[in-house]
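User: Can you predict the 3D structure for this chain?
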Amino acid sequence: MAHRNAHCLYDHNHNLQIFNRNGFIENRCVNVNVTESAEYIHIKVRDVSDFVFNYTSHIDLRHFELMRSEQSLDIDFNEFRTNLIDMLQQVQTHDMFLKCEIDSNLGKLVFYGKSKIKSIIFLTIDLQITNQKEIFDEMNSNILELQTANKNLVSQLTMSQTRLRDKDNEIEKFIVLNKQLEKRFLKDLQNLNCVFSTKLQECSALLITKILALTQKLLKLYQDVEIVKTESLLKSDSSARLLQSMENLRLESIETSKIVNELKRENCNLKSIQLNNEKLITDLNNTLQNQEAEFRELKKQRDEFEKDVKQATLIIAQKTTANEELARDVVKANQMLVNFNHLLDTKNQEIDELKNSISRQEKIIQEQNHRFHELCKEFDEYKAEYNVERINKLSQELFTAQKKVEDVEKVNRETAKLNELLTRKLASGDFPRRNFLS
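Assistant: Here is the predicted structure, written as structure tokens:
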């Protein structure tokens, strides 16, 4: 019978030895429940898995006086409650022992201790089988609890399924976004490759053309210098031509300096384009790392959902066979989870393939950077060969040649004066003919 306004003092499960009237001994896991009302202490001993094993004891002041008289107890009714709870707690710690004796509709709950000589009985409580109405009320209460738990589990399962669908949608959105980013990355990479290849070809062609032109100009310069040297030794009137050649060399040197400056500017532009490309690749890698972090977070949440579903499955498994429909739902949920795991593995494989593709593209970019560095190295070698010092050296050589030409002109002028003097003396007859002939 249900007791209104009852206060629960103790509720715990114990593994007890059950001694039947026919001498059969069995072990049962029974629930011992102690409640207190205004005038009674209610003790219930029942097996949760077997509704037939259900015994009750109602102890009031009159009943307790009989127990004290029969068992020679040294406590009063007010102390009985505290000592009863204390003995039950000692049973839990195995400082005291408890057994149950059953005889048809009657029973006894025996608290005893063990010594080296014999067992000492501390307290015996008479039990009676619980009436049918109270058993049915307990069964109805348990069924209601199971139904409530079933509804809660169904609600939790529905929420888990909803959350799983939401996460699935988020993963699909993540995959779509990842594909878009991949397309954008590939498109930008192709554009970058085209621009880089075009610039490299243009620069290579321009460098080759300018190097050939400068080589031809240098050869022409050397030829002109040789011609100037030869003509300066043979004829005095070649000085004007040499000056003109020097002026041409000076102009060509200025043009060469302009070409070198243009090549420097183009080299700076190429380096700037390379830095922009490296920055773009870094941004794309950072975006990919952020997406991988989001994916790991989603995977962590999925693992938590799996754990929650496993716990729900464990709770459902502990319930009675009346929840078969809920068990089928859990099986379906597990199947959905398996399908989801399979889909997630597929997505992980696709992401690995995307990572491999990105690594291959990075290798291509590294090769292109290596080619660009080689081209820059060749350009530096060219600058080292045809630098300002070499041009200054050529100018110095030209200045030396010009000085030699001036010396030759001076000698020619002196020779001309001497010839003029000799001619005047010959014309006047003052010059000794003998000496002249000699």
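Confidence is low (pLDDT under 50) at residues 431-438. The longest helix spans residues 132-234.
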